[in-house]
């Protein structure tokens, strides 16, 4: 869980004029202030030049923080936020199990939707959102922030797709998180409201696998196996704090683990890893931290015939919001395809539904 | 494939007198000089004070290298090496598919056996060796050198067993190797002689998983899935250059990949990794190399409630040979149990036999 950004996104920056001019004309409302990701979503949109027309959600510490940060944004009720005349886009970041309902209502009201992940928690919800998307002609994006918000992951995926390490054969994705038990709302502990650990957290790893193994979104992705367990929360019997999912597509096997077991001493919310093996080399991402190693985050290491290279990703642009706004204005498809969003969500929910108990 | 050691093992060292005195009385012969591991096995035994009574094997570049290194060792025929009066132990390092036959013959001749891995390539071979072991009262060890020859792996396993990171939940083991196509003998390319990539390479990762998840050798280890493929050797149709095996025991899931895809620029024969997740922290081993990171090998990183720690493993003793010789002399069981050796070999061969094709 990240802290809200320190500055006031949308205020003047070195690129302020250009960015605002590019993004001007796109208004958004926010429905649900239930996960700190909402700060990342809103900050991205504001920085890219969109403007907020209002927000809706329940009272709580996160809402308090949000309203301190976005003091000029009017508080609305949910129907008003979903159907606001000045909103082209609705940002959805409520309780996970309620997001699909908000997204489908917004789509049917003629709005585009940007959802925090998980975008849906059941296959029925997914079918409903996709139906609303198709019948409305509007778009539903789920932001897989572990890729779109991390320069090393973004660049690793780009290089893998470009054939930099030959034909990709294997992907290992690890997404450990901190439990932070005392900071979690009630919905977090129950898969009926959170979606479960695979439908929620593993969407990131499934997104990365699909983006690497099948950028054209045309192959069949096989769900080989999945499992979930509760190994550290005996007083929360419904909690899932560990999960695994194995996928295959286009000759690439992907093995992914997510958990809430990150030790307090790590100094980051998690030690996310992405290890891509190709026929001509490897790409390794230490996304957040290199424990007891190099400082900072976003570490990308490439091994190829020429040697081992620490890739400087400082120049990689995190431009998801600018691309999203461009797609909204021009009807283009530069951020990610609808097929990709649908597939990742379907795989995550299916992996969750079919998950076997963690072995005892 | 390591080079033969530079010095003359068994010659005087700082600890020479003690070591020789402890190990004196154990003579060994060598049958099969088909993999550079034989140098590691023999060097370990000599350094621990055993003495070589002779060696047998086919002509070839490796035999030439061996006879330059061990100029005082008499060349024997195989029956003479297996039944040498002065040998208490036979070191087996021939063509993998022939090792079990040599091991069983040696056991039935009243010798102990130290085998390079893979010790067996079929379940029938395993049954025969175990039968010979039981009827003779002698012992058959397979040296899983990625653990017993690496201080970081040894120490990680010790810490995991000691509860340093709480209850272990998950293990990821990666064992990539260099293909080195122009240095490989004919038997390497055919699973009928090599055993296949899982029966051969993955024994290391299976050894590590079992040693971590079930040190008592009492649990049932479940083979969840396995697969093998050929992704880089189109002109060698029988070759397997990538494989995966997933295991579970005692609430621990283990996911393991082995391959021959290491890029030439790595500067090591492979980038072996071991990542252990517990309820109270993680242990991460970069066994051979930390690509584009810290120098050297044997990197062990522990994350716990107190912080991230790079563990200095310089003081960890690689004492497999001393323990083996002590076990031979005293009939003790300090190196590893017979049950462990049998289980690892059975799992590896079973994973190999049941492997599905790598997804296309």
Automatic annotation (TrEMBL), chains A, B:
<feature type="domain" description="Gfo/Idh/MocA-like oxidoreductase N-terminal">
    <location>
        <begin position="78"/>
        <end position="142"/>
    </location>
</feature>
<dbReference type="InterPro" id="IPR055170">
    <property type="entry name" value="GFO_IDH_MocA-like_dom"/>
</dbReference>
<keyword id="KW-0560">Oxidoreductase</keyword>
<feature type="domain" description="GFO/IDH/MocA-like oxidoreductase">
    <location>
        <begin position="156"/>
        <end position="284"/>
    </location>
</feature>
<dbReference type="InterPro" id="IPR050463">
    <property type="entry name" value="Gfo/Idh/MocA_oxidrdct_glycsds"/>
</dbReference>
<dbReference type="GO" id="GO:0000166">
    <property type="term" value="F:nucleotide binding"/>
</dbReference>
<protein>
    <submittedName>
        <fullName>Putative dehydrogenase</fullName>
    </submittedName>
</protein>
<dbReference type="GO" id="GO:0016491">
    <property type="term" value="F:oxidoreductase activity"/>
</dbReference>
<dbReference type="Pfam" id="PF22725">
    <property type="entry name" value="GFO_IDH_MocA_C3"/>
</dbReference>
<dbReference type="InterPro" id="IPR000683">
    <property type="entry name" value="Gfo/Idh/MocA-like_OxRdtase_N"/>
</dbReference>
<dbReference type="Pfam" id="PF01408">
    <property type="entry name" value="GFO_IDH_MocA"/>
</dbReference>
<dbReference type="InterPro" id="IPR036291">
    <property type="entry name" value="NAD(P)-bd_dom_sf"/>
</dbReference>
